[in-house]
Amino acid sequence: MGRGIDFRQKEVIDVTNGKIIGFVVDVDAEFNAGSIKNIIVAQTSGLLRGIGGKNNITIPWNSIKL
What is the pTM of this model? Predict the structure, then answer.
C-alpha cells in the first residue's frame, strides 16, 4: 500500500460502467491502526466537466479495487 499522498490526483473509475468518477483529493486514514478508511474524490459531473463544478464524494476503502 502506498502513502496517502501517493493517491492524490489518481483517477477513480467505476468498474461497473468504465466511467471516470473523478480524482482523489484526500484520504481518510486511521493513523493509530495504520489503515485507510476512505478516499475523498472530487467528482466532476456531465456538463460541468472541465468547468470546475466539482462535488466531493467519499468512497469506503473496502469498495476500492487497485
Answer: 0.72
User: Widest CA span of the chain, in angstroms?
Assistant: 41
Record the cell numbers describing residue 22, joined without a space.
473523478
Length reported for the chain: 66
Say which amino acid occupies 66.
L
Each residue of 11-51: pLDDT tens digit? 999 999 999 999 888 889 898 998 899 999 988 765 444 44
Instruction: Tell me, letter by letter, the H, E, C secondary structure of the chain.
Output: CCCHHHHCCCEEECCCCCCEEEEEEEEEEECCCCEEEEEEEEEECHHHCCCCCEEEEEEEHHHCCC
Residue 53: how many CA atoms within 13 Å on its side-chain side? 6
Determine contact, residues 55/20, Cβ cutoff 8 Å: no
